[in-house]
Amino acid sequence: MRSLTLHLKILITILVVLGISVTAYQIFVLGIPVTEDATDDLWNIDAKVEFVANPKDPVKIQMFVPPLSRDFVSLNESFISNNYGVSVNRIDGNRKVTWSARRAKGNQTLYYRLVLTKRYSGEKVKVKGPTFRDSIAVEGPEKIAAEALLAPIRQHSADVETFITEAIKRTNNLNDDNVKLLLAGDPSTPHKAKIVELLLSIAHVPVEKVHTIRLVADQPQTPELWLRSFNGNDWLYFNPETGEQGLPADRLLWWTGDENLITVDGGKKAMVTFSLNNSEMNAIRLAKLTDENTDANFLEYSLYGLPLQTQQTFMIMVMIPIGVLVILILRNLIGLQTLGTFTPVLIALAFRETQLGFGIVLFTIITALGLSLRSYLEHLKLQMLPRLSVVLTFVVVLIAAISLFSHKLGLERGLSVALFPMVILTMTIERLSITWEERGANHALKVAIGTLFAASLAHLIMSVPELVYFVFTFPAILLILVGFMLAMGRYRGYRLTELVRFKAFLKADK
After folding, report:
1. Closest CA to 395 of 359, 358, 360, 420
2. Where are the domains of the chain?
3. How do residues 161-197 score in pLDDT, each as one tens digit?
4. Angle between helices 356-378 and 342-354 (to 10 degrees)
């Protein structure tokens, strides 16, 4: 007995830990939303390209577009143009779109449109980058100034991160004579970034320029320059003006390197204008779209991967254990008498078709009439099996009659009685008849009321939309329910109703 108890405890612990672990993995690692009402941001980005084409020359326009390799995923990408060929290529970690035309004349307008969202997969994509670079050749006064700046930078830094931060801060000190010499009267951010790159190259620290777009709706946008360096495991991003480390979450990396955003052959006066707007979408729907457009397999092994019609069936099925748990608590802890455990759950499922109020009325009327007929047939001295057969046939006729009269009276709710599971009603009447036969009418009435109350409570709990979503989305929670049910199987204590029954004994002891 002791070994059996230990075995049961181990089994319960395994089920509970497994259920909690899988659910926690889905929530915290995969990022599946806990509530159905959760929404996520959806960004629409338009890049409008305008230029003047030379009338006699072929036109070729190249523009960088986001690589979307790590933090963001594209839901839709389109290139809108008239009579232009379009191709997209990857070059040195960047993506570049090329529009080309044999002839074009006058003002030209092209559009690049991108719909994106945050990447849902919790798994980080492994990245690679350089950890060493050769020094940029520099001579004369510039070399002396660079070496003079590097001396205090080395002294006040402890690793690559602090070295880069210190180099950026020193370069932005416009009162330093060495900085003035290197900037040569050009204190623009791109030129400062070039000086920082020079200083870091002398120390063999690789750094590259990255150009980002800020995800802010309804505001004019121009690419923002940042610097980044690879520390062997990940990219470290730095603000070239302040030395602040870490790329803000609202920045979208557009391209890397020293090249311009757009180049035009066969045209002039090229200009790119960005416009952004933000919307929200149901998180699960967005996750499914994300899964379809990436290799993340976000929902591949979830119930959302099933066909839609099958999903609707499983939304009902996964709630059956919840209903069973309600009946188990009502019977084992409270002491409510019902027709078994599963019958109230089946009646609760039947209430899905008729709704609770109308379903209770139908259940009461049909069951009462069925039992009345059974009482009448008892006077005919029939055997149990023929008597039950007559009762069940009467139930079918009664259901058909109710449906017919409801249709004639225009009561749409009454038509749902045709969908009311007939087998459930007939089985209930049969079991109540047997109970009546064996233990009397009072006990049968008490069991019928208990069954109806338990079914109603189970139906209300099983119909809570938030609970349906949670159990369907995180089905591993059912393992925790199984563990609780196993623990309940060893409960031998008093039920609440028994405390009321034995209250007289407590008074007698006093």
Report:
1. 420
2. 39-131+208-283, 136-205, 311-474
3. 889 998 899 888 888 888 888 888 888 888 888 988 8
4. 120
How far is Cα 48 from Cα 109, in angstroms, rounded to an integer?
7
Q: How far apart are CA 55 and CA 399, in angstroms?
A: 82
The winner for highest mean pLDDT among 271-275, 295-299, 395-399 is: 271-275
22 to each of 16, 32, 298, 499, how far by Cα in Å? 10, 12, 14, 40
Dist. CA 262–CA 260, nearest whole Å: 5
State the pLDDT at residue 109.
Answer: 92
Token duo for residue 177: 């004579």
Q: Dig out the tokens for 316 from the structure.
A: 């009902």
Tell me the per-residue pLDDT of 328-380, one tens digit each, with 9 for 90 and over.
Answer: 988 888 888 888 888 899 888 888 877 788 788 888 888 888 778 877 877 78
Taking the C-alpha atoms of residue 351 and residue 455, their distance in angstroms, rounded to an integer, is: 9
**Residue 200 to residues 245, 267, 395: CA-CA distances in angstroms?**
16, 37, 88
pLDDT digits (tens, 9 = 90+) for 244-264: 888 888 889 999 998 999 999
Distance CA(104)–CA(112), nearest Å, equals 19
pLDDT reported for residue 351: 84
Q: Would you say 50 and 270 are in contact if contact means Cβ atoms under 8 Å apart?
A: yes
Nearest in space to 267 (alpha carbons), one of 112, 110, 105, 111: 105
Instruction: Report the distance separating Cα 407 and Cα 123, nearest Å.
Output: 57
Residues 370 and 382: their CA atoms lie apart, in Å, by 16
* Nearest Cα residue to 198 out of 207, 185, 189: 207
Residue-wise pLDDT tens digits, 208-252: 999 999 988 877 788 999 999 988 888 899 999 988 888 888 889
Phi-psi category of residue 247: left, alpha or beta, with phi > 0 → left and psi -120 to 50 → alpha: beta
Residues 6+ apart with CB under 8 A from 92: 256, 257
